[in-house]
Amino acid sequence: MTAPPDLQPGIPQRLDSEVTRIVAPNAGMMTGAGTNTYLVGTREVIVVDPGPDDESHVQAISNAGAGRITWILCTHTHFDHAPAAARLKALTGAKIAVMSAPLTDHDCRLDPDRSLAPDDLIQCDGMSLRAVHTPGHASNHVCFLLSSNRMLFTGDHIMQGSTVVIWPPDGNMRAYLDSLRRLLALDIRVLAPGHGYLIESPHTEVERLIQHRLRREDKVRQAVLRAGEPATIEMLLPRAYDDVPKVLHEMAALSLRAHLDKLTEDGEIGCSDGRYSGR
Q: Is pTM, for the whole model, over 0.90?
């Protein structure tokens, strides 16, 4: 995948007077141009999502921070967002903050200096970043709201250009929808996603995502009801995701399961031995 010029890995891009973006060299089908690492601040710097444990990327972050990095924040501990935290801490002496949760097979192990709770504040040099707990993509997912410019760093809660995968059992569709709705009550000016470009009109984008998920949920519901027999995920996938390229069906199957789990919990469908049917 060839990244656009302004999303080339390792090149600092100033987004405003307080925020710089550096893209990690991990472009791919699920990561787009690569993971966005954000450097927030001037005299002191907070790093949001240090990214994969890549030496060149960590060095680019350190160079851009120029001895001013004091905090390293992770929106969640998936392998494309958090592993570089340990190397960056060793290089800079900065402290790591992350929301704790049981590890899954797609989480890296970190030794944080601070375990975040919902609405915690990370403050330095007059800056304030608020931890907004947004479970759904991951149970320990947290967005960070920068008070001075109302920029929300969204990690994988919201991505530019695509929807995120909800991967049960740690990923949860009900929690994801609830987390999206929670953002509508916040005073946000712009979204800074973990992959892709800044997203303007944040509340419009959040509403669009909610409606997209609800439309998908209805397609899943209808696929189950019209199956004519108890159906497996493999049987339902081409019906519920007929508008998604087959190359993405392996990932789509994870979100399909998350939708089915929610519908089962809601009592709308039944599940027995991995087969789903209407009630």
A: yes
